Amino acid sequence: MHSRTKDAELIEQTIEFHGHWCPGLAIGIRAAKWALEELGKSPDEEIVAVVETDMCGVDAIQCLVGCTFGKGNLIHRDYGKNAFTFYRRRDGKAARLVTRENFKGEAGRKLSHLNRKRREEGLTEAEEKQVEEARQEVSRWILDLPLAELFHFKEPADPPPQKARIMASHMCEVCGEQAMETRIRRFDEKFLCIPCFEAVEKR
Ligand SMILES: [Zn+2]
Ligand SMILES: [Zn+2]
Asked: Which domains are present in the chain?
């Protein structure tokens, strides 16, 4: 698990799944590795991940830990934070990993300076190359950083989310399509799916 080759394999596997190599993926890989080592892999719903971002890092959680949207053991809260909570159902072991301030180091400062310049006045070709180099440097930095310097380890505020259940479906009286009963809305004595409900609400 700790060997270089095993690590290299995990990284390769994740890049293949995600499509490219980037700092966000590096963060996700570190969080996923913590979960694998401390809680184990999740072939079923045993491990649940609650992610507070929908960016690159989540792909590492899906690929390596086996928490996926389809299985219902990956839950997204749209808070825009680099925060990942993992729960193991059988014994309640859990932790919320949140990236620390300035975890990207010197290369990270260079990168955010260049990104600001790009937004405000644009970058020269040479600077675009520097961005690419800084991204590589930051990604490497994140992989090598001691885990305690990358993440705060916090107590999750909430208990683990409920297991995914099989739900009954209802037919929407506007479009005629079936939707899960928990997603059906009442409007004017009718049962409506969410898009149809939002459409009549806007009128
Ligand atoms: Zn990415
Ligand atoms: Zn509908």
From this structure: 4-103+145-154 (3.30.1330.130), 169-202 (3.30.60)
Closest CA to 46 of 96, 98, 93: 93
| pLDDT at residue number 1 | 45
pLDDT at 7 over 90: no
- Dist. CA 71 → ligand 2 center (Å): 25
Q: Mutual orientation of helices 125-144 and 105-120 as an angle, nearest 10°?
A: 150
153 alpha carbon – ligand 1 mean position (Å): 24
Measured from the alpha carbon of residue 194, the closest ligand is: 2
Distance 56 CA to ligand 1 centre (A): 4
Burial class (CB in 10 A: 0-12, 13-18, 19+), 151: buried
- Tell how far the Cα of 78 is from the centroid of ligand 2, in angstroms: 25
Average pLDDT over residues 118-144: 95
Question: 96 CA distance to ligand 1 centroid (A)?
Answer: 22
Per-residue pLDDT at 2:
54
Higher pLDDT among residues 88 and 165, named by residue = 88
Q: From the CA of 56, which ligand is nearest?
A: 1
Report the separation in Å between the CA atom of 199 and the middle of ligand 2, taken as the mean of its atom positions: 9
Tell me the mean pLDDT in the region 53-71: 94
